[in-house]
Design brief:
mainly beta
Amino acid sequence: MFRTYLMRGASAGAMSLVVLSGASAQVGLPPIHISAHRPVGAGTASNGAPVAAPQDGAGAADSSEASGASQEAEVVDQKQIARELPPTTDTARLIRDVPGVSTYEAGGVSGIPAIHGMADDRINIIVGGVQTTSACANHMNPPLSYIGPGNVEKIEVYSGVMPVSRGGDSIGGTIIAEPKSPVFAPDVTRPPARPLDARQTPFAPLPFLAAPAPGQLRFGEDGAVLVTGMISSFFRGNNNGISVAGTANVATKNWSLLYSGDWQRATNYHAGGVGEKVLSTNFISENHAATLAFQNDGHYLSLRGAIQNIPYQGFPNQRMDMTRNQAYTFEGRYKGLLDWGAVDARIYWNNVNHKMGFLQDKQPANMPMATIGTDYGYAIKAEIPFEKFSRKDVLRIGSEFHGFQLNDWWEPVPANWQPGRFMSMMGMVSYMPAMNMMGPGAFWNINNGKRSRLGHYLEWDAQWNDQWSSLLGVRNDTVWFNTGTVSPYDWRNPVPMTVCPVMMGQIGPCGPSAAMGMNNPDVPAANAFNAQNRSRTNVNFDMTAMVRYQPNDLAKYEFGYSRKTRSPNLYELYAWAPTPMAMFMNNWFGDANGYVGNLNLQPEVAHTVGLTAMFADPKGDWEARINPYFSYIENYIDAARLYNAPTPTATQPYVFQMLQFRNYKAIIYGADLSGRLKLLEDPAFGRFDGTIVANYAYGQNLEMGQVQNCAFFDNACYAYANAFVRGHTGLYHIMPFNTRIGLEHKYGGWFSGADVQIVAGKNVVSVPRYEQITNGYALLNLRTGYEWSNLRIDLGVQNVTNTLYTLPLGGFYFSGYKRAGANSGVPGMGRNFYAGLTVKF
């Protein structure tokens, strides 16, 4: 009975995988929906044969749209990914059109997505079942950077009020990126599809091209072995960017072996206007993955291994650049259909060796910073259908563990010496030789840091009748922290200076001077940190309550409340050195300020209410969605000034701030709007659709008033500062109002599109950080292409008018400041022509 129920989503699920692989003859397991979705109303395959199915939840057709029993995800499917791939190097940018989503601009492949103004560790990001942590003091290797955009099968985005089964230890939302999945051959050989060519389409502007349809390459006895795949290549003119991505799948009825990989390279891009080069935007990246899968009688088992190599990646808004990122990932997964329900279990391990330094366009000197991070864990979840309290009940039970270990140290730099100099003291001329400022030992930023989380959840999904359904869930996550002792470059305080007397023009015998030395504030800070109890435990509780009402086929409404909790990351707790050089190195915000941790931080707790109204024409002529939301956040981790920094002047227009992480009360509210309208459909002209996505968000710190100047560890000063609130400040990196209005055209194999992106000026900023104010702008983008059965061509141009603009979430343009004293945000990319070619077999 349960298997029959699960088979209902097979037909719609088949479409997403067939489009992905181009193999119309592939098959797989019936869909195993261990997720916050439940397929309803989809029939079985028309021919009665098994067909390909999604591996974890379904695509938009059979989960997000068909589900009537849970909060719906925004799903970026293969159709949308294929459209975004030609100009895109960063997987985070694949979700740019999802309502409520924006991106912190960082390196070329390391953008950090934000949902409703919350980003980075506030979002639960899972890539292929693996939960990775940024193993870098600058967060140069966020989770989505571990998979190339060409190797993504689909991305699910959950925002606002979301089910507890979709992850804990986060308050902003969940992003689930699924890699390309293995597909299996059918149990019988189907006749090959009739070859397709451009003449069979209503519009054929390109020369005649005939080729067999994908998915017909077979070997072995009775064609038991099916070989499918695809290869894509893209060129981007603005930064001389080149990308190559491909997949190859060899399968029988029960076994499948999949390879996927990509390689990308780009030089520094050019801004709009006069086309100045934007420094530190170059990169090289490659990813490779292999998956071995087995299926039989409702059971599925897979083993996936992946490697990444990034030799270098520039960051225009950071003091450092990435000089190496090598990662190794392993994941094992089992899914099965049992008499009582379905189960989905994963184990995973990820290790990254990461280094930072300087690329040549930032500065020639070297300052190596190394991190080694290891993520490991498991996730097991079960879905049990029953009929006791409502017409259809589903119980979801899950257990998760995620461990993270981190070592972050900075090697000594023997070549970094202050030059020797002559000096006069008390009438005696002396010579002070060179002195090493970054040595003689290594600086340990985090020594054997550990963060472990164990979570359990219970969720009840009920369909009361045709109109009403509900979702209730509770979750507990316990988080343990600890770290070892730390050390500065030099344990001496003061650091003695060597003085050589000068007599008759000759430098005499040198020796240490008891009267001369340099204060070393890292020593007392390290001693104070090492003397404290560094072990911490957070016991967090989440809950979600949601009700849905669907009065007819045109409308659907969701209203819900959630309590979500996030514990601090290791850097927020354990970055210990309150000196400028060390603080500048601990910065994942792109503002070039300095940050120090706080052992007294409490977990963030977000109380969110949201309403989603969805309207759609049953004939598919139009659809609309609006989602207002409000979040009140207790213990929001913001940054306050640590020292009395001078204000900007004409000669020093920008002053970098020294900041410490502290807890505050904050609010975030806003609304998302999206829609589509069929404008024209005619056999002679094809179909025209208008689209719109609009987002507004506002964030405010309710407790931070005029900045107080407190010495490090001065708790009395902190208490006094927090007691006298005299104003408010905006939260950092909240995207201003923005909208994208588009026109899409489809005529046979020909597809085209034009869109205008409009972004308002950013005037609500974080005052303590001196966050950049940016002006509004508008960009025009054009694209077109043609697709046969096994060949696709893409052409397009971004920023057609070559507009000069500043990225609202780009941060401070430190590379430009370093080179020419520029005081501005990071400029966006100017006019960019791109082209792409994809071949399927």
